Amino acid sequence: MEKNWIIDLVGVSKKFGESEALKDINLYVRRNEFLTLLGPSGCGKTTTLRIIGGFEHPTKGKVIFEEKDITDVPPYQRQINTVFQKYALFPHLNVFENIAFGLKIKKISKSEIRDSVSYMLKLVNLEGFEKRPIESLSGGQQQRVAIARALVNKPKVLLLDEPLGALDLKLRKGMQLELKKMQKRIGITFIYVTHDQEEALTMSDTVVVMDKGKIQQIGTPVDIYNEPKNIFVANFIGESNVIDGIMHDDFIVEIQGVVFDCVDKGFDKDEAVDVVIRPEDIEIVSAEEGQLKGKITSVTFKGVHYEMIAESGNFSWKIQSTVMKPVDAEIGMKIIPENIHIMKKVKNN
């Protein structure tokens, strides 16, 4: 029986001199999955992608592709293609010639090349652009040509290294949706690298959050956002209020001297914990109705909502709401159990 995964990284580490870019990475990628490696600069995500593509060799560990060890297989012999942030298109070739380049090297027949390129141009919404010079295309159009050139060789996996990074915000958002639709239509595995949290949440089936060469959490976009495993993930994905709490018992946590019902369990009695509450999950009510009380110290209009800071005791709460309360307003804050996420405190070594 064929396994559901196509790539498996087993105990992969990578050193550059004395610097360890990856530390014992274990990760499998399913067939036809849109998986995103997400994290800040220097976290190891691009190194992971380059090891999968064969452009870097791991210091330790194996790269398994369809149950075969390809750790020592060169890039051109892998059924994996890559689209880089710098699209590396050939400026002296037109759109058709750029897309057909790999097929010509393989000595595919002219009629098959023509059919394959025509299909790709339709897939990336560039029909009629065959004879256009590369310099005449916009950034978004060049990006589509780069994707078509990679896909025309029928790889089983497409690697994308921050391919939308050079595009403006509106175009980037449009291309996010197009890429996702394209991936579903052709039914191959996409492994995508980005530092943009919104991009990862929008496009992915699975998100792999990385920091300092290690995987911090793997999950669906909903899981990663709603159930962060640690403080790094909570702060990196979206925005969070992270405050000290005491877990008195299963489903009971104390925050700022107030006892709240929550949905977490399995902690020691009266264990000190970190409590994560998203800014959009705090309901503003009257001071009398609130579980916690605060005073608004700043208000910023963000377009779809207001972002307010409310001082309560020695903690500054970030609140996002369509209801605006002015600076100096006394407010109450209400938080339902499902919106209170409890995490174990990280012990410093």
TrEMBL record:
GO molecular function, one term: ATP binding
Keywords, alphabetical: ATP-binding, Cell membrane, Membrane, Nucleotide-binding, Translocase, Transport
Enzyme class, broadest EC rank: translocase
Alphabetical list of SMART domains matching this protein: AAA
Gene Ontology CC annotations of this record: ATP-binding cassette (ABC) transporter complex
Assigned EC number: 7.6.2.11
PROSITE patterns attached to this UniProt entry: ABC_TRANSPORTER_1, ABC_TRANSPORTER_2
Domain ABC transporter: 7-237
Reaction catalysis annotation: ATP + H2O + polyamine-[polyamine-binding protein]Side 1 = ADP + phosphate + polyamineSide 2 + [polyamine-binding protein]Side 1
Keyword Secreted: no
The family this protein is said to belong to: Belongs to the ABC transporter superfamily. Spermidine/putrescine importer (TC 3.A.1.11.1) family.
Function: Part of the ABC transporter complex PotABCD involved in spermidine/putrescine import. Responsible for energy coupling to the transport system.
Binding partners and assembly: The complex is composed of two ATP-binding proteins (PotA), two transmembrane proteins (PotB and PotC) and a solute-binding protein (PotD).
Protein name: Spermidine/putrescine import ATP-binding protein PotA
Organism from which the protein derives: Acidilutibacter cellobiosedens
